[in-house]
Amino acid sequence: MYTFGGETPFLAVVVPCYNEEAVLHETTRRLAAVLDRLVQERLIAPESIILYVDDGSKDETWELIDELSRSHTFVRGLKLSRNSGHQNALLAGLTAARECSDCVISIDADLQDDVTAIRSFIYKFHEGYDVVYGVRQNRSTDSIFKRNTALAFYRFMKLMGVNIIYNHADYRLLSHRALTALSDYKEVNLFLRGIVPLVGFKSAIVRYDRHERYAGKSKYNLRKMLSFAFQGITSFSVTPIRMVTAAGFVIFILSFLAALYSLTVHLWGRTTSGWTSLILSIWFLGGVQLMSLGLLGEYIGKIYLEVKSRPLYNIEVNQLLEDRGVQADNNQKLISR
Question: Which of 46, 64, 120, 256 has the fewest other C-beta atoms within 10 Å?
Fold first, then answer.
């Protein structure tokens, strides 16, 4: 049904979903139109699919996915047993699609990422690129706050030494061999935007304009965005620990100078009570110590999670396995419908 390296590659479009019942029909319509055009141009195989990954939605998302899969042969569904988070849901879809595809494109369901850019992704794939990043060139539909925080996020990640593509989210194409290489990264603290560049291989960039969300509301509030940023920093950089070490060295030098000053004043007989300066210095040093312990604890916590090696997700329903007879992975749980 598919052939790796063939003239018409088998494409799987992976779409992670969490409470997306308001947009699924429109997302399917737009993606289907793009796939149909690509099939007509003989750029992808007619058997190419859309794979929706339900990340433990609380609304009717899975019921809609199941309905769409029954009425459209190119729609498949993957249902996780609980909400595992966007990155884990995305990885679940990529892992499942890898077994039956020459290339995979991941995109969010909210239609903010321009689906027509998929055609450019496929052209790059035919040119020999294994990784194609979708980069937002216009974010005018985002709020001023979100644009500025996103800019600060990418700049800070670069400052911390994390290799990340500026203004790239999770809209990308990965070839079969890039997906295979990605599967060798067994990290529990998952940050795909940082992991994918580590895979290597020949890569390209496709730029597109970001649209307004078709329906519903963003699942990423300020707390989740900050948590996501912190996850990326601590998963890929030891720079924060080095900054703490540098701060400790600077404080040591300042304390040494202060000790010399105090000794000099004492020898000159000009000693005065310094309650305020003493209290402020104690609070300052105490705050630095607590912050340092907290930062070290964050890294130790990540080591703890990695050592436990718990599965990132459990699959409840996998229509790809059901339809193609592929054996389930030992780390996944399959419950037949």
Answer: 256
